[in-house]
Write a structure and sequence with these properties.
The chain is of the alpha+beta class. It has helices spanning 95-119, 127-142, and strands spanning 4-18, 24-32, 37-42, 53-61, 64-70, 76-77, 89-90. The strands form 2 sheets. A 5-stranded antiparallel beta sheet has the order 3-2-1-4-5, with no helix packed on it. Strands 6-7 form a two-stranded parallel ribbon.
Length: 161
Amino acid sequence: MQYKRSKIKSIQANGTWETRDGKTMYQSEVELEDGTTGEVNATTPDRWNVGDEVDYEVKDGKYGNKLKLSKPRDGFSWANNSDSSSNSVTRFENRDERRQHLIMNQWAIKTAIETEMNLSPPDKFELRNAIAVAKLLKQYALDLENVDCSLQAEQPVEMPF
């Protein structure tokens, strides 16, 4: 589900209820400036006020819409709202692509460090060599069809025994 951004247009208290661990929750009906309405729960009665800018997510509840509200953090927005007048940066614009790059980085670094550790004694380990190998591994993995295979050793490596 994607977060959107709006401001609270109206808020009406709608009672309280108790959680399993004894905390009092304050329930309210909220209408946002973009026309979205729904029920909100908060741990304090004054958590949300008219005019508050919020990032929100709508979920279908048993008795209507449930809104999950959060206050925008400076410089970041979960909302993808192109008509917003705020000057915030959309965080994780393409989450799947970002996640895939992080997975590739982790794999390349892990493989390169293991290789470097196997090829050199622990006291001769060079992190910069492992990082260079990791960059090559990631590059090769992303474009395996265009790998330059001419980097093979000119003479076969002699077996140590």
